[in-house]
């Protein structure tokens, strides 16, 4: 039986959309959209594409040929994903060229002359070639705490997990994908239940989407395994609701960027030889998706080893290590991340406050954004506080005052500040700030007056944010924060 398709994803000219409109219509509502007109000046669109619109494979061999990359075998499955091998870019390109002799193609079976179709995925191109500015992230997708944080910190520090290949694979979430016509990505929801955006530098993709409220339909009775390929002859006894699924479809053309919201399951097919760039990211609008996933994966990890609980010296530690290995971070990693991000947001809030003493504070979109961010972090910390494991086990410690002196934190703060200045410049507030970034929070002595100057658990973070907001209200008046 064929798939039921209910509709298409909306396409909007990105040049005619304001940041606020993007937030209100898509990011806040968690709705997909395709944006056009945002890639005009990308170097990738010139260097990586031939005059007749094909991937410029020679350019890749010449300039990036020695890079080692992960390549998926589109015909082979390994657990929930495609089998992967590591190749150099040159080797990958050679194989692509060999396979692209027309008579070799065998329909949509993901195999060419008995050999699997190869799809280069998750290439950390920006990390590897920081000097080569292939593109600029469109403003709509710049409020990206995940990649800003990873540019300065590691998400997870356990040397057992964070080594070798893993070190590279966790370094950031900015990727290049390259694959011939027929390559594809199986059904999945994104890592950390982040948002993603994906831009077609050349080629064409066909996307199938399922909203989070219907995602249970692609799972088995135990809600453990998900359909792998929606075009397979899906076993009805195993996936009894699969035939009820109604999909949203999107044909994404060259130079179009798709916004994939949190928790939407999707399967993707390259209809032509395609190169795309994609990022995963999260911010104050979708943090709760990340926490929901972590909690769910934690409960699963715990259930899986429940039978060794009584003979294990550090059962909770083992659960957290397994969670980090499977999901990419654990509770403590996430809490440290939240503590850094709250302090960075507060640094800027103090800075804006200092610079706007004589203005009507509530008019500042920047202050509204920072206050919103702090409030959404606080909501997650409150949820974390309700998690027994986190109240019983204090496994990390962050000193807010020391963090202000950390040069990596200084870099994180400057990039975050620049990002919000860029985002809000359309609605520029009249009073400009003159302060250095971190001085304002020091001068205001917010940390010194807080009962919890250290963060060791979610409750400390909740109190710290409460204190900061009450303190600023005390100085500048209730209506202003
Ligand atoms: O382009 C693809 O093959 C997959 C991309 C994807 O799944 C994503 O960006 O989330």
UniProtKB/TrEMBL annotation:
<comment type="similarity">
    <text>Belongs to the JARID1 histone demethylase family.</text>
</comment>
<dbReference type="GO" id="GO:0046872">
    <property type="term" value="F:metal ion binding"/>
</dbReference>
<dbReference type="GO" id="GO:0016706">
    <property type="term" value="F:2-oxoglutarate-dependent dioxygenase activity"/>
</dbReference>
<dbReference type="GO" id="GO:0140096">
    <property type="term" value="F:catalytic activity, acting on a protein"/>
</dbReference>
<dbReference type="InterPro" id="IPR050910">
    <property type="entry name" value="JMJD6_ArgDemeth/LysHydrox"/>
</dbReference>
<dbReference type="GO" id="GO:0043565">
    <property type="term" value="F:sequence-specific DNA binding"/>
</dbReference>
<protein>
    <submittedName>
        <fullName>Arginine-specific demethylase JMJ20 isoform X1</fullName>
    </submittedName>
</protein>
<dbReference type="InterPro" id="IPR003347">
    <property type="entry name" value="JmjC_dom"/>
</dbReference>
<feature type="domain" description="JmjC">
    <location>
        <begin position="126"/>
        <end position="298"/>
    </location>
</feature>
<dbReference type="GO" id="GO:0005737">
    <property type="term" value="C:cytoplasm"/>
</dbReference>
<dbReference type="GO" id="GO:0005634">
    <property type="term" value="C:nucleus"/>
</dbReference>
<dbReference type="GO" id="GO:0045905">
    <property type="term" value="P:positive regulation of translational termination"/>
</dbReference>
<dbReference type="InterPro" id="IPR041667">
    <property type="entry name" value="Cupin_8"/>
</dbReference>
<dbReference type="Pfam" id="PF13621">
    <property type="entry name" value="Cupin_8"/>
</dbReference>
